[in-house]
């Protein structure tokens, strides 16, 4: 709720056309406390975002931050669109997205008859499916260099606070997600997405900017505010049997970070916990959950994790 006379906070959402970014963007454009700009890399993404959120044309900016040059200001002292000026906060929702191999799907389907006849074997072993990244969209480029460039851009803009949507599991180099994009036999290739994400987080932590780093568990497209939000640090929640969370709940946590963080920087993991239908009325809002967590003083320990990264 806006206080009379209060000026709305200008926020940039990067990766605004993505599945999580579009939810964050849509919530912000519906909240009078914020003046939001969705930043996308292409005209196609802009059209997709406008169609999905019904936002105004001026609320979307097409610009590729990774191609901006901040060093040689003599040639171009203002290499970004003027619509991005006077931004106070940035929500980074960009991420490398793997594409499933159609050949691996066909092979998995052909195995189903034999698998269902084999005791204790699933019809489809999803670990048999193969994923790869599109050329030029590898984790190192998108999740490290791309996010590093966005953090540098935020500093040039005078942004005070960055909310970064990352991923849980960054302490385990053997996490399955790190194998995506690698050759199964040699282990070589363009993978290690969680390692590159964590390296970008560390860069943000020493940037001098206020930060909120959110490590969601497995993202699911279920209704928000139907599960109890659980926050912790340092992959402690990886021990839970259920390690998923609604994208909508992650979006709500992003908004909560913008309103409830004060001047505190924090990095945390988050999952959803199922509750009985009769108890849904007791589910705390993302704002209350984050406020309670901030009061504990807990945050991720970036001395942990794979060495050399």
Give the end-to-end Cα distance, rounded to a whole number of Å: 42 Å
Q: Which structural class do you get from the secondary structure elements?
A: alpha/beta
Q: State the strand order across the main sheet.
A: 3-2-1-4-7-8-12-10
Helix content: 25-40%
So how many helices? 8
Radius of gyration: 20 Å
Biggest sheet record: 8 strands, mixed
| Strand residue content | 15-25%
pLDDT average, as an integer? 92
Low-confidence stretches: none
Taken from the alpha-carbon principal axes, the silhouette is globular
Order of helices and strands: EHEHEEEHEHEHHEEEEHEH
| Count of β-strands | 12
Write the layout of secondary structure elements.
Layout: E1 9-14, H1 19-29, E2 34-40, H2 43-53, E3 60-62, E4 89-92, E5 99-100, H3 102-117, E6 131-132, H4 139-157, E7 161-165, H5 176-179, H6 193-205, E8 210-216, E9 218-220, E10 228-232, E11 244-246, H7 247-260, E12 266-273, H8 286-296
Parallel strand pairs: 1-2, 1-4, 2-3, 4-7, 7-8, 8-12, 9-11
Antiparallel strand pairs: 5-6, 10-12
Helix pairs in contact: 1-7, 4-6, 7-8
């Amino acid at each position: 709720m806006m206080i009379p006379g209060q000026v709305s906070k200008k926020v940039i959402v990067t990766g605004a056309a993505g599945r999580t970014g579009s939810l964050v963007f849509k919530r912000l454009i519906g909240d009078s406390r914020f003046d939001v700009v969705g930043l996308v890399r292409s005209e196609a993404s802009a059209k997709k975002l406008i169609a999905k959120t019904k936002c105004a044309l001026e609320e979307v900016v097409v610009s590729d931050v990774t191609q901006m040059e901040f060093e040689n200001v003599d040639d171009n002292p203002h290499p970004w669109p003027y619509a991005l000026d006077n931004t106070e906060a940035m929500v980074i929702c960009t991420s490398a997205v793997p594409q499933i191999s159609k050949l691996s799907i066909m092979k998995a389907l052909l195995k189903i008859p034999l698998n269902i006849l084999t005791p204790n074997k699933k019809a489809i072993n999803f670990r048999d499916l193969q994923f790869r990244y599109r050329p030029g969209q590898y984790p190192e480029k998108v999740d490290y260099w791309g996010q590093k460039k966005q953090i540098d851009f935020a500093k040039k803009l005078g942004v005070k606070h960055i909310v970064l949507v990352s991923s849980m599991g960054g302490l385990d180099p053997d996490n399955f997600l790190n194998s995506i994009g690698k050759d199964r036999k040699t282990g070589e290739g363009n993978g290690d997405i969680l390692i590159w994400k964590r390296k970008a987080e560390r860069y943000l932590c020493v940037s001098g900017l206020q930060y909120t780093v959110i490590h969601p568990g497995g993202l699911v497209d279920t209704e928000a505010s139907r599960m109890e939000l659980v926050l912790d640090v340092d992959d402690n929640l990886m021990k839970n049997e259920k390690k998923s969370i609604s994208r909508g709940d992650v979006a709500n946590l992003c908004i909560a970070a913008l309103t409830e963080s004060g001047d505190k920087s924090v990095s945390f993991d988050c999952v959803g916990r199922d509750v009985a239908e009769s108890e849904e009325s007791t589910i705390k809002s993302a704002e209350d959950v984050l406020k309670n967590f901030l009061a504990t003083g807990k945050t991720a320990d970036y001395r942990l994790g794979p060495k050399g990264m």
